[in-house]
Design a protein that fits this description.
12% of the residues lie in helices and 34% in strands. The protein is mostly beta strands.
Length: 95
């Protein structure tokens, strides 16, 4: 199967170790000497519409990709779990 980066950007990336959705591919890193893809980059979530910065980006090594399917990309890697903070912006600012 031949696949372009635009095809991969529209597929959800799922970690098969934890069963969690990681996100969608936003960028790639490649080695300029060998012209091989090294990593897929998933940008961190924007905080308050990007005004307060972003969370850390998640990178997935190309060697960690198990299957590129029709709807999803399955990876097997140790990605930190995404935690949801309780409370809103105002509550977090008052702490």
């Amino acid at each position: 199967m031949l696949c372009t980066f635009d095809d991969i950007r529209n597929k959800e990336i799922i970690n098969i170790r934890s069963g969690r959705k990681i996100g969608y591919a936003d960028d790639i890193e490649f080695d300029t000497c060998t012209a091989k893809v090294c990593r897929i980059v998933i940008y961190g979530k924007a905080k308050c519409f990007g005004l307060l910065g972003r969370a850390d980006d998640i990178t997935v090594c190309w060697s960690d990709i198990e299957i590129i399917g029709e709807d999803a990309v399955l990876v097997s890697c140790d990605v930190p779990a995404v935690t949801k903070k309780s409370g809103g912006l105002l509550k977090n600012l008052l702490k």
